[in-house]
Amino acid sequence: MSNDVLMRSGARPQWLWAIPVLCGAAVVAGIALTTAVPVPDGTYLVLDAVVGMTYPAVGVLILSRWPRHPIGRLFCLSGAGLALQALSGGYAAYAQSYGLPGALLAAWVTNWVFFTGFGPLLLLPLLLPDGRLPSPRWRPVLVAAVAAMAVLQVMLMLRDRVWVWGHEVPSSFGFVPTDPVAEVAFGVVVTGLALSGVAALATRVTRSDNRRRLLPVFAAVVAVGLSVVADNLLPPDPPVGVWLQAAALPLFPAATAVSIFRYRLFEIEVLIRRTVVYALVTVVLLGAYLVTVATIGTLLRTGSGVLEPLAATAVVAVAFAPARDAAQRAVGRLLFGNRGDPAAALSLLGQRLESSADPTRLLDRAAETVAHTLRLPAVAVLAADGTPVCAEGGVPGDGVRLPLVVGGRVEGELRAAPRSPGEALSAADLAVLDDLARQLAVALAAVRLAREVQTSRERLVIAREEERRRLRRDLHDGLGPGLAAIGVRLDVIEATAPDTSPAMRSSLSEVRQLVQGLVGDVRRIVHDLRPPALDELGLAGALEDLALDTEEAVEAGPAVTVRVPEPLPELPAAVEVAAYRIAQEALANALRHARARTIEIVARIERDGLVLRVRDDGRGLPEPLVEGVGSGSMRERAAELGGVLRRTSASGAGTTVEAVLPL
């Protein structure tokens, strides 16, 4: 049984949602207890709040779909560890001030329980997104990381001093010197974990077929890694490193949520995502609200009055109301896209259509644009015969089907899947889709017409060149030899006729000259119809003949080599002529402008197409580049056959002209 099946299997207990609730309650209780008494330094409480409020929510979101997924479990464990530190630290500070029992035990727990969450947090990038290592070569790294975490966990439990919100006292439970043993070990381990996580995820991103879904997470992991390294390198006062971590750590669950929502990283159903996102935003804002109230209340409480905390609470409440509304709007845009702003949706689609330089590829990213505009899991544009023109997330089997009609002709169909199974799209969604369908219908008609024109053009060019080859063969093998035979026959008549009068000899001479002139005309026509070397030597031989003629014609010129790695099959006449003329023009351009020492011509078959490459080691293309008549004719010859021509150059490194001609 595969790992995916194992992670899918199992019940989906509803009590999973108790994890973020309990973690949030622990954070709130810790903040309340801490703010009730004066503490020297409460900055680490901010880390506990942001991690304890956000990480369990994302973890349960993943576990709701994959009950045994290690990534979901690590997210929950990360948040739980720091939430417990907030609770134990708050109780330790409160109990020490009021003489309650268990103060020293709570302080001792505060010093090591956080790493039961912070360690797994730094371990997450090694296993993202599927809960497995990037490759078996990373197994020693994982083993070393887990061993180092276990050793550090024991050292934190047995160190000789305990620290609670800036207040440090000797520990009756430990003997490991805090300075420098425990502090140095902590810095080395967390830095190693952070850097190895960044390296592992970077390896996975470079090898992934769908990098976009991992890029937000990778950016967040880099930010977290840099903040961890900065915290270990910067001096503790002022606590810049702690504030950097407080800013970077929430990016990790946020980026994971973005990848889930936009790129379906863990295939979470859209309905679950929508419900959880609103709850997650509410929890995050509540946590930020409480942290800010606690911080401002602590800063303003200079005496025993009550007015300062109440004033701070009022200020924060007023400040967060518009922030909450903005966050809710952002979540709505994340889940439903621009359905409330049809003009923006049309503008985005118009920009994508305008960005296409090839009329036949006008709709390449249209389905992706529509899907991302309305946050739909699957969108497809089909031609009139049912062939997919473009698709994002596959061709939907159910959902909305809108005909694409232009001038009474059905050009195709737009299909859009619902956001979740069984959920119908709203009237606002349908209105935006209807507006987009009109633009897509016109674009689809333009694509059809462009393809028809291109197909007709290709057929005309192929038919023209095939007819020219036939005419050349008939002229060369039929009419030419016949005229030559007539000339020979005239010579025989003149030589053997016994009584040939001067007038008759003059007439025969005129006829002979006429026949010779016709023979010359036929030869010129044969040569102009098609390069003779193509029929006599084939394309490979014709290119070698072209290279030899060039070297003989130009004194002290560049060395021209022709390389054909494998024998070329029989090519269509149009492809042979286009390849020969493009090579001829590229060679002429290199001789006139490149000042090259060597020129190489390569011809090979790749993916049902002929690839012709002319490379020189000259001075490269000028800047700015102005395309001349010769370059335009090369591009036109390739386009006539549905091919492409590319010219690349680097200053002082030569120029490469590459033509790809479909067969």
UniProtKB/TrEMBL annotation:
User: What sections of the protein cross the membrane?
Assistant: 15-37, 43-63, 75-94, 106-128, 140-158, 184-202, 214-230, 242-263, 275-300
Q: Which reaction does it catalyse?
A: ATP + protein L-histidine = ADP + protein N-phospho-L-histidine
Does the keyword section mention RNA-binding? Answer: no
Q: What is its EC number?
A: 2.7.13.3
SMART domains per the UniProt record, alphabetical: HATPase_c
Spell out the CDD domains in the cross-references.
HATPase_UhpB-NarQ-NarX-like
Keyword entries, A-Z: ATP-binding, Kinase, Membrane, Nucleotide-binding, Phosphoprotein, Transferase, Transmembrane, Transmembrane helix, Two-component regulatory system
Output the Gene Ontology cellular-component terms: membrane
Q: Where is the Histidine kinase domain?
A: 474-663
Pfam families referenced in this protein's UniProt entry, alphabetically: HATPase_c (PF02518), HisKA_3 (PF07730)
One term of GO molecular function: ATP binding
Which InterPro entries does this entry report, sorted A to Z?
GAF-like_dom_sf, HATPase_C_sf, HATPase_dom, His_kinase_dom, Sensor_HK_TwoCompSys, Sig_transdc_His_kin_sub3_dim/P
User: PANTHER family given for it?
Assistant: NITRATE/NITRITE SENSOR PROTEIN NARX-RELATED, NITRATE_NITRITE SENSOR PROTEIN NARQ
Q: What is this protein called?
A: histidine kinase
Q: Which organism is it from?
A: Microbispora catharanthi
